[in-house]
Amino acid sequence: MRKMKQPIRRDPARWMEGHVPPGLDWRAECRWAAVGLILGALWSAIVFLYRLDGALDLLYEWVNRQQVLVESRTIAPFPGLLDQAMAGLLLAMALTIPLAIYHYACHYLGSRSIYLMRRLPDGWELWRRCLTVPALLAVLCLGAIELLTILYFLVFLLLTPPPCLPAEPWRQLLCALGGGRI
User: What is the CA radius of gyration of the chain?
Assistant: First the structure.
């Protein structure tokens, strides 16, 4: 009888252990990364909604103690509403640089695994362990910025009265996604 090949199991825990310095608690780093992403997204939502509320208020006038829409007014450009909204996620992305330096410094602490890393036949092993997690976090932050920008654009379209929308709102989305104003 022929023996069947066992499928290769992809264990995320084992993969992470192979991509951080030896002895480093990668689970704690994942928790800190999640907290950073959540705080950055909360900051982003608060700033964007505050700016959008202010822009929507400018579309109305008070007449006899009632707000009346002035249809000749146009809402502020969407990229302008994102001004400073993504600062928390950009800060999280910038903090991946000190994280990479910390990962490199960890090889000099404790068991001094830097000597072992330098003797390994795979010369990239040290850099893989120092840079993989920070690079993944930077990509996650960038992806979160792009997803939040699209989500905020949909909120912008839903909350803005149709007569007050700019002539080409989709062009503003492309400008915001392309980094026209972060």
Answer: 24
Tell me what the mean pLDDT of segment 23-35 comes to: 89
Q: Which residues pair with 67 in a beta bridge?
A: 62
Q: Are 74 and 164 in contact (CB under 8 A)?
A: yes
Between CA 61 and CA 77 the distance in angstroms is 20
Q: For 74-107, what is each residue's pLDDT tens digit?
A: 999 999 999 899 999 999 999 999 999 998 888 7
By the 10 Å C-beta count (0-12 exposed, 13-18 middle, 19+ buried), 26 is classed as middle
Determine the Cα–Cα distance for residues 72 and 161; give it in Å rounded to an integer. Answer: 11
DSSP per position, 95-138: THHHHHHHHHHHTTSTTTTHHHHHHSS-TTHHHHHHHHHHHHHH
State residue 152's pLDDT score.
96
Instruction: Indicate the pTM of the whole model.
Output: 0.83
Q: How far is CA 42 from the centre of its chain?
A: 11
